[in-house]
Amino acid sequence: MAETRDVDQITGVETTGHSWDGIKELNNPLPRWWLWTFYATIAFALVYTILYPAWPLVNSATSGLLGWSSRGQLAEATAAADAARAGQLERIAALSVEEIEADPDLRTMAIAGGRAAFKVNCVQCHGSGAEGGPGYPNLNDDAWLWGGSLDTIHTTLQHGIRYATDDDTRISEMPAFGRDGILDREQIGDVAEYVLSLAGNAGDEAAAQKGQAVFADNCAACHGETGEGMKEVGAPALNDAIWLYGGSKADVLRQVTAPRHGVMPAWEERLGETTVKELTVYVHSLGGGQ
């Protein structure tokens, strides 16, 4: 029995037999250019899976005849970048931080390398913009416990602060005047008022006047007679508005009674001499360097 074909009366084209709401689908052939493009993509995919990693296996994947991998490409690019920088990195390793600072090309490269190292190792404490926070110094200002010259920043980064495993680490220990019974509660209250008065924040002038004598006997040796600080021993200035642990009376009382002492790692043993020099130049460039 002959098969009956449905032909559209208007176009004269055979239909597929499908109909939606009275609209019939014409059985037109696909455009030849589209078919050849489709066949080409199939051929390309077959060639690709032969040449490049493609098919997943149990514990790995097919490696492809070319042996290419994204990890290998990254390793090659990294090696090429390292080779291009090798000469300048050797110069940075051989020169002092002052000599690096004096060379415009080396300084630019050191700042770029130091910025990258800072983002990986330092932002957790000092902040992404080096603005610091409670207990963590702001590196953008001119308040430096041990000084803000290239050499002093370099030493601090090399050996850290109160870092137990480095014999040359920076150390400054403020006595626990309250916890160890060096001063009584009234004296601590008075000296706290005097310390606040140095920055123009005293609330009790009479107590501040009494605290001046307590300060002279117990604090001036490190912090200076007028609270200007002493970089030689890492004693902060008390006559400005920069407070590492807060500038309220409660904060000052707490610090005088049982002081907190921050710790920073000795970065040279972790990052190496060259990276520490780059960090030094970068931190010095933030605007607070002296």
From TrEMBL:
The keyword Translocase does not apply. Residues 109-199, 206-287 form the Cytochrome c domain. It is found in: Cell inner membrane. Pathway: Energy metabolism; oxidative phosphorylation. Heme c 2 binds at M174, C219, C222, H223. Binds 2 heme C groups per subunit. It comes from the Bacteria. Its cofactor is heme c. Heme c 1 binds at C122, C125, H126, M264. The keyword Iron-sulfur does not apply. GO terms for biological process: proton transmembrane transport. C-type cytochrome. Part of the cbb3-type cytochrome c oxidase complex. FixP subunit is required for transferring electrons from donor cytochrome c via its heme groups to FixO subunit. From there, electrons are shuttled to the catalytic binuclear center of FixN subunit where oxygen reduction takes place. The complex also functions as a proton pump. Belongs to the CcoP / FixP family. Component of the cbb3-type cytochrome c oxidase at least composed of FixN, FixO, FixQ and FixP. This is Cbb3-type cytochrome c oxidase subunit.
